[in-house]
Amino acid sequence: MKTFLIAFLFFFLFILIPGELSAEPLTAPNLTNNPSLDVIATNTRPLLSIFNASGGTGKRTYIFQIDTVPEFNSESLVEYKDIPETNKYITEKQIEKKDALSDKTRHYWRARAVDESGSMGPWAQTRFFLDTVSDDTFMNLIRIPVKEVTVSSGQNPKNITDLDDPGQSTFWLGSPSGDDRAQWVIFDLGKTQKVSRIWMFSTPSGKNGRLKNFIWQWSNDNRVWTDIPDAVAQNNDTFRNIIEIEPVSSRYFRLLIKDWYGYTPQINAVILYSPGIPEVPETPDGNYVLIVGNQMNGFTFSELAEFVEELDLDLKTLTVPHYEVSLDMVNKLKNKPVAIICSGNNADYEDLPMFEYNGVFEIIRQSQIPILGICCGHQLTCMAYGYTFARSMGWSDITSLALDEQNEITAITIKKDIPIFQGIANPFTAPEIHSWAVSPVSLPDDYEITSESTYIQTLKSKTRVLYTKQFHAEIKTDYNEATPYLINFLKVALQEKNR
Q1: Each residue of 340-352: pLDDT tens digit?
Q2: What is the 3 state secondary structure string of 18-69?
Q3: Burial, 84: exposed, middle or buried (Cβ in 10 Å; 0-12, 13-18, 19+)?
Q4: Of 68, 129, 128, whose CA–CA distance to 104 is shortest?
Q5: Edge to edge, what strands does the sheet with 339-342 contain?
Q6: 3-class state of residue 396 by DSSP
Q7: Is the dihedral of CA 33, 38, 39, 45 positive or negative?
Q8: What is the tens place of the pLDDT at every residue in 291-316?
Q9: Bridge partners of 328?
Q10: How many CB atoms lie within 10 A of CB 66?
């Protein structure tokens, strides 16, 4: 009998009610979604997104706290409790109207998980800066091409100026420098140029290699160097730096790195900017489409221009990099485009100088020319009203990988029967290449959802000819059933011009 009771007790405790006894401890959520460390939010009601915690018993909910001090004990403290997980990957919550955050202010925010038993996990904490006017107008800056980069040690200095999306993951890594920790990077501009802004990007994955103490200098002969007073950093604790300086005219600029975290310094990218406005490009004759290249190097991810020109619509194209386009430029074009298409890109936004997209945001908010946003362009149409209104999904939707693994491609369901879906089955499949999405929680008031899968796939404006699509209708592949979407948009744009 005693043996039987012990066996029954074992069965009861470890088989019938395993939750409490076998549950893993709650972990901290991951706050590298959006807004991640030191991004600049542009709406007083940002969307806060996290990657979910793990462990605990039963379903998890979350506590979010936002404050203007890192101790979370000021009168500005905002707290939300019992936030359910949005899905198995992420949790999101938009700041409520009554809690709109103060502008021009650094905000700290933290999150923790709570399980059904009431157990709480550890806090995860980060910070962001709120500046609602920072994305209002074109940056009025021009990228400065660098003729040559030389470094004090290490290899691959070209990685510092390989300005394309994959280039954000490549880097220069200095060699260990012994007792003398100073290292340097010299930028030869080829001729005297005026520099007023410097964007720096280094080691987003952690502190190891991140620059700690540094100063920028200039020289006319590459021998005698003069410090730039506005370009000094002491105890730098971030991986993105936007350095504004009084304009300095010189051919040579040097980044003198005095100290860094870890073994040796690392730099992923540096861009130098000069005050100015890009020249207005020459336009094609006749009907054409202006394509905004949202790749870091100004091109597009897919063969979008070729696709448009091959259609039986007698359309030409003009591609302009996102960092050169602006509402003023569009208004000054000698021949106005039939439509504007904002392309995709291949990088995470937190790794990019987002002020370069200000001109795109101007066009999205104000232009009356028909607009189509594709992939990144789809997300930018929402981010024009708040940087955090797009966020990581926590997974990558890449249809080619699904095919390689012989998985079924996720179908897209049309939610609103409108002419742009003419000729498209419901549901339909289309190529996907992305890991970010716009959130239904923070859609601009003017937008409505027209199709979706497990996330928003297409949007339209209620007041203008503005359409978006997360998928790539322009990619030529046998499983792409969405090609008519792009063709129908262009037909709508041509009709608008002929009115």
Answers
A1: 999 999 888 999 9
A2: HHHHHCCCCCCCEEEEECCCCCEECCCCCEEEEECCCCCCCCCEEEEEEECC
A3: exposed
A4: 129
A5: 316-321, 288-293, 339-342, 371-374, 466-469, 456-461, 447-452, 413-414
A6: strand
A7: positive
A8: 999 999 998 877 899 999 999 999 99
A9: none
A10: 21
Please report, in angstroms and rounded to a whole number, the separation of the first and last CA atoms in the chain. Answer: 92
Q: Which residues pair with 227 in a beta bridge?
A: 217
Structure token digits, residue 428: 């339909």
Q: Which residues of 301-337 are buried (b: 16+ CB within 10 A; e: fewer)?
A: bbebbebbeeeeeebbbbbbbbbbbbbebbeebeeeb
* Residue 394 token pair: 């926590």
The encoded tokens of residue 309 equal: 């020109």
Give DSSP secondary structure letters for 164-175. Answer: SSGGGG--EEPP
The pLDDT value given to residue 15:
43
pLDDT tens digits, 421-454: 999 999 999 999 999 999 999 999 999 999 999 9
Q: Say whether 159 sits in a helix, a strand or coil.
A: helix
Domains of the chain, residue spans: 21-130, 141-275, 288-497
Pairing of strands 456-461, 447-452: antiparallel
Both tokens of 91, joined, read 């949790």
CATH topology of domain 21-130: Immunoglobulin-like (2.60.40)
Place of tokens 């009861």: 12
What CATH class does 288-497 carry?
A: alpha beta
The torsion of the CA quartet 176, 207, 201, 363, rounded to 10 degrees, works out to 170
- Sign of the Cα torsion 279, 280, 284, 285 reads negative
Residue ranges in the chain modelled with pLDDT below 50? 1-21
Burial of 198 (0-12, 13-18, 19+ CB in 10 A): buried
DSSP state of 287: S
- If one looks up domain 141-275 in CATH, what number appears? 2.60.120.260
